[in-house]
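help with this:

***
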Amino acid sequence: MLSSQELAAFLAVADCGSFSAAAGKLGRVQSNVTARIRSLEQRLGAVLFDRGRQGASLTPAGETLLKRARLAADLLAEGEQAVRDQAAGRTLLRLGSMESTAGARLPAVLLRARERRPDLQLQLSTGTTDELIRDVLERRLDAAFVAGGTDLEALQAQPVFEERLVLVEPTGRPAARPLLAFRQGCTYRSVAERWLRASGRAPVEIMEFGTIDGILGCAAVGLGIAVLPEAVVRISLHAPQLTVSPLPEPYGSSVTMLVSRRDDGGRRPLVELLLEAASS
């Protein structure tokens, strides 16, 4: 079994690419880091790093260990944080959400959740559906609101909201051809691309954005079109300059799901709290 110090040394060398940089990151002398890695390699019977003038790079055995080592480090950090929160009388929920859901749906949900559990501390992260599912799977998030759910056995997904997807165009002016969208991994972008292909309008140029406001602002001035939930368009400051049209089925609707790990029983009451708050 890896000790916490061996784990820290292994991850530091893997991240920094050299023993000297890893030692600096950990605040230790290089000989200490080198000795811990050598001891670990001897115990495992495998070389974890190729050493050379350019630094240290992972061997196939090192790559095999890396993913599991990161998971172990995440679990240790999660356990430490849980103990601190419990000692301080706090209940921490690391929640993920698509940006569209965070803006249009979550404020009321989180308010109701806090009213029911005043001790609830929230950390909210936004991302694409693919990114959020990966973060829940790898325990960086306790739960996340995503589009369409997942078929991964380790995760459970429960429906929360049904969104009406619309084509967003500028009012009173022709729209440029580009599709304004989030980066790859966004379900709404995938729906838009499938619809454009089916309607004979693909391929199209795609302009990637990091925010809903950026997408809608550029759509309002005619830089392109977008496909988004109607609810998020209606509350935008840019709504008066935008025209929305429903997408035909099977592209016109999307179910937002709350995903969480099946084996995380300790967080189950908080997931149930969110589901109750969302249905109120």
Observations:
- The two ends are 47 Å apart (CA to CA).
- The chain has eleven helices and eleven strands.
